[in-house]
Amino acid sequence: MKISQTSEDKLIHELTKDLETRSAVLVGVGDDCAVLRKNEHQHTLLKTDTVVEHVHFLSEEKPTRVGWKAAARVVSDFAAMGGYPEALMISIILPPETAQVWVEQLYQGIQSVTEKFHCSIVGGETSSAPPNSPIVVSISGSGIVKPENLTLRSGGKPSDLIYVTGTLGGSIHGKHLDFIPRLEEAIWLAENAQATSMMDLSDGIAKDLPRLAKCSKCGYEIDLKSLPLSLNSTIKNALNDGEDYELLFTIPEYQKQILESTWTETFPDLSITHIGELTEHEEDTLEGGWDHFGQEFKSP
Amino acid sequence: MKISQTSEDKLIHELTKDLETRSAVLVGVGDDCAVLRKNEHQHTLLKTDTVVEHVHFLSEEKPTRVGWKAAARVVSDFAAMGGYPEALMISIILPPETAQVWVEQLYQGIQSVTEKFHCSIVGGETSSAPPNSPIVVSISGSGIVKPENLTLRSGGKPSDLIYVTGTLGGSIHGKHLDFIPRLEEAIWLAENAQATSMMDLSDGIAKDLPRLAKCSKCGYEIDLKSLPLSLNSTIKNALNDGEDYELLFTIPEYQKQILESTWTETFPDLSITHIGELTEHEEDTLEGGWDHFGQEFKSP
Question: Which pLDDT tens digit goes with each residue over A151-191?
């Protein structure tokens, strides 16, 4: 069987189902980041993420935007745990025809992210690839989360309310390269809103909500008409396009009023929208979203 | 300028020369791993490393061996700091024609490493790539080192003696896929031999010794005839082939006798060889070794 005939989630399940982990590992495969014991006051977060030319960005795209995207995706994952980034490593795979100035501008884009979010580049590597290979930028690193802020995909309970930040859909028109990771907002949610579960939306809510619900051993009901749509986007776009990099999170029902009023005071420029509830009965009612393998190859 | 017209070291210098780092970062770009403050008794090591089809392995190679190599390279870098691996993340970039069984066997190879060296796989991802792209396996993660064992490239002093473990050259005939990272030996050297500097040999001693000497602000003198040669290898092979994954390390002169006698008792099956000295005068006398960009593309 070729990997184009399977789905990304099935492949990862097959590869990782029998893994054992050391005792210092608090959370392994399956959340936005791994979590390791660090010291009394902090846990370490670990994350790796990759963008590939023709898949995550077009060849003619500005390298500063590609660098921003590559690094901001990782920051978004640290945020989704209730934490923040500390140290990043940059691996770049380059065919020989790549212009050095392209690589320098890519690095500028990455550094815009590390400066804005106060983290350091501490290592990485460059490797060659055969002529005409796609450029690959893989960013990995560590972050920090206070134990009391740690918010997993698995913490949701039946009747918890499901929310998203911002608007969904149509990321392909530019947001997928320029999005602002919801770092401050995620830490605020962990500290102030008793968020029970959280993740960032990378593959579309049709793919990501079932993942969160499954981790929480819940089902879900959403009101499709309530989905906050980006300009010129349809419900279908909101469900399937992916790369929104907004937060998907749940809160206990009794937090609704206090969340909605304090949120607006704290973040007047970013909406949150109540889109549904977690339910007792584990059942998938959504289909779609971005899958790396279960579809024909197409450029972004 | 295309990157095929520069050298890897020059490109990395250009990209990273102005980086600032946070205070928790004890060692950033430029050593085998980055080092971060963890707690009173341990530092965290961070590392990322990538293998690319056609560059680091041939398409017809057994995927279990490719997986072993990809993970063992990272373990070798943790070892070179005097530490050990704790948690690894596996990113795999796959063209759609890849067979699922290939990926499963790759994972088996990676797991052979994590089992032998007692570390955990805690995350990663799979991403698609356009048809006929090279497969890319990027492994990153964290390790641990006791502060008193931390051994950097920069710790060498003039008149320190330069040693290598094992034999050098001809790795292409198989060792580059099957090598055993010198983890136990490196920790022993850090604990018992007062090793002043250390790194693992990945690009050939002609490339790596000048790097270590430069970090230590020293020059070096080596006796080429003393280089321990692998079977059927020449001095030229030992200098340039790369991918030996042996340890290059320095010790104070007065440690020579005690090192050589206790080493043989402790590791009777692995040689160490005194090949030269660090000197006061910073000067490069070696040329060659593997460079990802300063040469025409060729398969391994």
Answer: 999 999 999 999 999 999 999 999 999 999 999 999 999 99
Phi and psi, residue B258, nearest 5°: -65, -40
- Report the alpha-carbon distance of residue A80 to residue A186 in Å, rounded: 6
Which residues, 6+ apart, have CB-to-CB distance to B101 below 8 Å? A1
Cβ atoms A197, A152 nearer than 8 A: yes
* Residue at token pair 């500390």: A86
CB-based contact A52 B89, cutoff 8 Å: no
**pTM for the complete prediction?**
0.92
CB < 8 Å to A34, chain B: 87, 89, 122-123
How open is the CA angle A147-A153-A158, to the nearest 5 degrees? 110
Answer whether residue A299 shows pLDDT above 50.
Answer: no
Closest CA to A228 of A214, A213, A238, A216: A238
Which member of A38, A54, A127 has the closest CB to residue B38?
A38
Q: How far is A30 from chain B (nearest CA, A)?
A: 7
Q: How much is the ipTM here?
A: 0.91
> Hey, how many other C-beta atoms are within 10 angstroms of the C-beta on A5?
10
Measured between CA atoms, how close is B180 to chain A, in angstroms?
22
Shortest Cα–Cα distance, B276 to chain A (Å): 29
Put simply, the answer to whether B138 touches A138 (Cβ < 8 Å) is yes
The first and second tokens of residue A212, run together, are: 């969160």
Residue B190's identity, in one-letter code, is A
Closest CA to A214 of A288, A277, A283: A283
Q: Residue with structure tokens 């380059």?
A: A94
Query: Which position has the token pair 């945020």?
Result: A79
Q: Cβ separation of B19 and A297 shorter than 8 Å?
A: no
The answer to whether B298 contacts chain A (CB < 8 Å) is no
Please answer yes or no on whether A130 and B127 come within 8 Å at the CB atom: no
Residue A117 corresponds to which amino acid? F
